[in-house]
Amino acid sequence: MGQEFNFNNELSGKIALVTGGTRGTGKAIADRLVKAGATVIITARNKPDTEGDHQHFIAADLSKTEGTQKVAKEIFSKFGGLDILINNMGGSETKAGGYSALSDDDWEQTLQTNLLAPVRLDREFLPQMTARKSGVIIHIASIQAKLPLYDSTLPYAAAKAGLLNYSKGVSKEVASKRVRVLTVSPGWIMTDSSSRMMERISESSKISIEEAKESVMQALGGIPMGRPAQPEEVAELVGFLVSPRAAYLTGTEFVIDGGTLPTI
Question: Record keywords: Oxidoreductase included (predicted)?
Fold first, then answer.
């Protein structure tokens, strides 16, 4: 007999953590999980402008060990643990210029933010998931793990490639304990920060916003769909993957890039 699902309230009673959940894709994911009935905790260094009825904010810098420990302590104290962990926090602030322009500090900060922060959070919350034999972890990686942009984001690409490999390894370790671990690798997403970047490119290059978008898509080798993703589209994929509808999925990477990657 087939299993029936309630799509509108399928995460009722679940406790979820979304890192970097105050803006952009993280906020879209948090909102999507709330709509599915989950209680959502969001973390970032700065407090969001508004906090929803079913969202709880913890201020923390997860690029540091103390930040991870703070988040874990507060979650175990207030909620008893997690059912869903979305390791969404990430980004790159390294300068352009290729490998020779990057210092040890550039590499260290990028690896801490994009690889070691998820590793530390998994280490905090996986034991209670495996003991309970229930849980889902999503690592948000990037197509740059396979399509590195060497001029400006090489450490970011390397960190995401490491996250992809790490995620696969952990999934094998905990699958028998009914904890699912998956990776979502987006391409270019049109967040508010991306919109501001288009404005800067437009102003500095004396071109239109649309021409600025085209220049970025060309730098990526083109996007067959002809546009970047919307945060809500990535959030919808994550919402499916953490739901009971995806109960047999683990250890897999899901690419959502509008066809950007030129190979399979």
Answer: yes
Q: Find out whether 86 and 138 touch, Cβ atoms under 8 Å.
A: yes
Same domain, 108 and 215: no
Select which of 99, 156, 166, 248 is catalytic.
Answer: 156
Annotation marks residue 166 as catalytic: no
pTM for this predicted structure: 0.93
Confidence of residue 4 (pLDDT cuts 50, 70, 90): low
Q: In terms of domains, do 117 and 217 share one?
A: no
218-255: pLDDT as tens digits: 888 899 999 999 999 999 999 999 999 999 999 999 99
